Amino acid sequence: MNRTSTMTDIYAEALPDARNSKKSSKRHSQLKESNPLPGSFEIAKRPETHRQIRRTRGNERADDFPEGERMSKTATVADHLAERLIEWGVDTIFGFPGDGINGIFEALRTRQDKLRFIQVRHEEAAAFAACGYAKYTGRLGVCLATSGPGGIHLLNGLYDARCDGQPVLAITGHTFHDLIGTHYQQDVDLDKLFMDVAAYNQRVMGPAHVIAVVDEAIKTSLTRRTVSHITIPKDIQEWTKSDDERSSANIVNHSGDLFAAPHPVPPEELLKRAADLINKGSRVVMLIGRGCLNAREEVLALAEAVGAPVVKALLGKAAIPDRNPYAIGGTGLLGTAPAQDALQECDTLIIAGSGFPYMEFYPKPGKAKTVQIDLDPARIGLRHAAEVGLIGDCRTVLQALQPLIERKKDRSFLEKAQKSMTAWNELMEKRGTRSDMPMKPQVVTWHLNKLLDSDAIVSSDSGTIATWSARYIEIRDRMQFSLSGSLATMGNGLPYSIGAAVAYPGRQVVCVVGDGGLTMLLGEIATLVKYKLPVKVIVIKNNVLGEIKWEQMAQEGNPQFGVELQPIDFAGYARCCGAAGFTIEDPKDAESILRQALAHPGPAVVEAVVDPNEPPLPGNISGEEALKFVEAMAKGEKDRWKIIKTILQDKIREVI
Ligand SMILES: Cc1ncc(C[n+]2csc(CCOP(=O)(O)OP(=O)(O)O)c2C)c(N)n1
Ligand SMILES: [Mg+2]
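Above are the sequence and the thiamine diphosphate SMILES. Below is the predicted complex in structure-token form.
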């Protein structure tokens, strides 16, 4: 048995025509064109015939293999892995090398025409990029990391995918199969480590095992919209058929590469109950989330029929345009005052595809009759008790519900919300067009919004910047938007943009990030340059972990501590990496510099130096928050005079 031999050279020879061949690149573009909308997961069709790879090695002959065996006896486990991923329609893998995955890298090297490898600078970025890719394309995101430290680095990005329900497959290496558990180099038990984050989590044991494991991992990720993990010991990656005895129970090619998406439609009886409840309501509000990203028409048809203002949870921001007459903005601390008011005043609530976490923003328990639509039955009544739960894809369920809905004549509730939305938009404009120095952060997002393409893909990081992005970036036409919703991690913004730019060459891709969040994965600017990804990184530089500074004051009543950041010259750093770097300090220049940066053909970083004392306060302020704030000032907050001055200048309800 020769467990170390690989077939790479022979393999490379066997596939010379495949490299950069028109045929395979066409297949890639077909995959891209067939990208479904987020929310409706699909996998590219399996090719009609599988490429037969025939080659000879010693006295082995490929055609001696059992009927149906698609690859030769000398194909490695890593070859099988790569081929199966390709058969599933995977064409992009984000990752970082290491000796624990050299076998897999060889399989990738020999298939560069079919499987793009995007090398990031930190494995966490690979997992975020895979998550962003899944969010924006609706397809499986795949990331790859080496044994031990590489696998550990993936975790935060994978939790982000799990928390926001994205199908991501993580592939890792492991130490030699017969040294696992012996304190050998990089012997971290990744099977155990990934037990919580991954719904499917398996170690591959040999060539006869790998295909079925890949199939199960992918099907689990797609069906349950979550994370799967496959780990392959370093030596096993290079095993070929001759290294491994297939057990007699394991029938060749027993496992299939077809994903059949569930399309449940609730029974007529339940649809009628839901419709009755909605028809009886006089103040109906819709709260929509990421489950509605593919249901724009259906959401708006229902809103029109019942005169319902539509509130968007942030992951569902791109579901309907922000200036649509039914849209009244986002909910929660980052949301709008009209949305907050409508949720408190409604008598009927339709929650569609959202697990928005903060319960205090829902109607008080018992105040609003609720219909909830969700793919997952376990999520009905998660945050707010529902009278009727409808299980299924929001689009399908809303289509089934619509014929049972009576059009409401009384539009007064909607009109009231629309009026306050007009006032809110005026307030946002006022805030966004101030000429104060230091520049207000809202000025940056205000101007950025005006300059974005109608199909721009915008990612936000976590921090006060999420408030500015949520309120100022207005969804139009085919724009897409996301951020780390449930995990609310820092660092996701830039790698999400990498995922988006790789998936959609030619589309405008922008991320809005804080100086704290960007610093965490700053090396990824080099990734943009390496792959010529023309991402525009807008970094709001306040030299502080702003969100936490405000939380310490407004939620705890304490002066800020441990939040100041050592300033970094981000524009200079960008230039050092080979990207363009711009700086905005004066609001007068904001529009022209942003315009220049967006027009730059390659990657660019725009460093916007802003006022660290501009508070990201909620649409409506509670008395308790105001009191805590005063308490923090009284305890000796060092910036108190500057903060008080800022707040006094902001007269309207956005602030205290
Ligand atoms: C990985 C991680 N660490 C810490 C936090 C807590 N946290 C949330 S927002 C934030 C501050 C973000 O600062 P920055 O990126 O500068 O944006 P700003 O709030 O200043 O706009 C912190 C520390 C987090 N969400 N994720
Ligand atoms: Mg900051």
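Confidence is low (pLDDT under 50) at residues 1-69, 651-656.
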